[in-house]
From TrEMBL:
SUPFAM superfamilies: CoA-transferase family III (CaiB/BaiF). It comes from the Bacteria. Pfam families: CoA_transf_3. This is Crotonobetainyl-CoA:carnitine CoA-transferase CaiB-like acyl-CoA transferase. Signal peptide: none annotated.
Length: 366
């Protein structure tokens, strides 16, 4: 779909590489520019055959060239590469690319219609713009973390980096939109993505509801307050999710379970003084998770399991769609960025795998 599109990727760690991997798996040629020591994610945390799995998970289908951007020869090669590209993505703190002489204003002298995207924490203006931060900070400042609380009201520390991933998605979306615009107008442009603003953008419902009602917990029938849209524990201390909002799904559940008398309790509260809610909790705890998986597969009632990460590769949905696959080259299970795309993505590149020595002979023609 993006065959012929070249993107120069100056990003490291997670958000930027996630963004460009989404584009690479749609066919774009992504050339990852790494420092001589490589993307720091190569040496971060858990490793597989000496390479950090965070790097392996977010850099499939890319090319790697190492450049020391502070050296004149390597800087010139970076300019050469940009001059052949459709888009540039960078995720340094504000001001770093300007110091390197690779900011938007400078590179447009060599590639007038370049699409240039900066993926930042807080954008390009305001008192926060130059501050260092990470995913947890963006989740906290956006109001999203306040939606994830335990029974005492304490925010739960997430084990997944939602702001980073959403920021990456927003960057890939913006790059695609800008490339399309360039096709129509002949003009590139500069785009600055704020990860804090991106994740705050999902708080629209909450903001309006709070203004109207004073309730900051969002859509009442989606936040665990009704029995037909809730999480239930099973006999083996596992959990299932019920999302039977539409009456037909709720009726399917009630009839299949032999409780037609529950039908009118569709939107009743998940409160301990609600006898039907207490009966439902007891019902779900009377059967094992697999029994409820089978039930939800056979009865169309929006009932699915809460899976652990090691169960994903065996679950029929992902197995049938081949969206989770085992690499034939390294044996790792991975998730496709676009599950309906055929074929196995190329694994993450070795450091400088696509650089050529001597450097003056690097092939950059497009």
């Amino acid at each position: 779909m993006l065959k012929g599109v070249r993107i120069i990727d100056f990003s490291n760690y997670l958000p930027g590489p996630f963004a460009t991997m989404r584009l690479a798996e749609l066919g774009a040629e992504v050339i990852k520019i790494e420092p001589p020591e490589g993307d720091p994610a190569r040496n971060l945390g858990i490793k597989r055959a000496g390479t950090g799995v965070v790097f392996l998970a977010n850099n499939r289908q890319k090319k790697s060239i190492t450049l020391n951007l502070k050296e004149e020869g390597d800087y010139e090669l970076a300019i050469q590469l940009i001059s052949t590209a459709d888009a540039v993505l960078e995720s340094f703190r504000p001001g770093v690319m300007q110091k390197l002489g690779l900011d938007y204003e400078t590179v447009t002298k060599y590639k007038k219609d370049i699409v240039y995207c900066s993926l930042t924490g807080y954008g390009e203006k305001g008192q926060y713009h130059s501050l260092g931060s990470h995913d947890l900070n963006y989740m906290g400042i956006s109001g999203v973390l306040a939606q994830l609380k335990d029974e005492t009201g304490k925010p739960i520390h997430p084990s997944i980096q939602l702001a980073d991933y959403m920021g990456g998605m927003a960057a890939s979306e913006r790059i695609l939109a800008a490339i399309l615009s360039k096709e129509q107008t002949g003009k590139g442009g500069y785009h600055c993505i704020s990860m804090a603003s991106v994740i705050a953008s999902i708080m629209g419902n909450h903001l309006l509801i709070e203004q109207e009602t004073g309730d900051s917990s969002g859509i009442s029938f989606l936040n665990g307050q009704i029995i037909s849209y809730a999480i239930y524990e099973t006999k083996d201390q596992r959990y299932v999710t019920m999302g039977a909002l539409e009456r037909k799904f709720w009726e399917n559940f009630c009839h299949a379970i032999g409780k037609k008398e529950w039908t009118d309790a569709h939107f009743s509260k998940t409160e301990n003084d609600n006898p039907i809610y207490m009966e439902m909790k007891a019902l779900f705890k009377s059967r094992y998770l697999q029994e409820w998986v089978d039930f939800g597969t056979n009865v169309d009632c929006c009932l699915t399991p809460v899976l652990e990460v090691n169960e994903l590769k065996h679950f029929s949905l992902f197995r049938d769609q081949e969206s989770i696959y085992q690499s034939t080259s390294n044996g790792l299970y991975s998730v496709k960025m676009h599950g309906d795309r055929m074929g196995e993505p190329v694994p993450a590149p070795a450091k400088n795998e696509h650089g050529i020595v001597p450097r003056t002979n690097i092939q950059v023609k497009k």
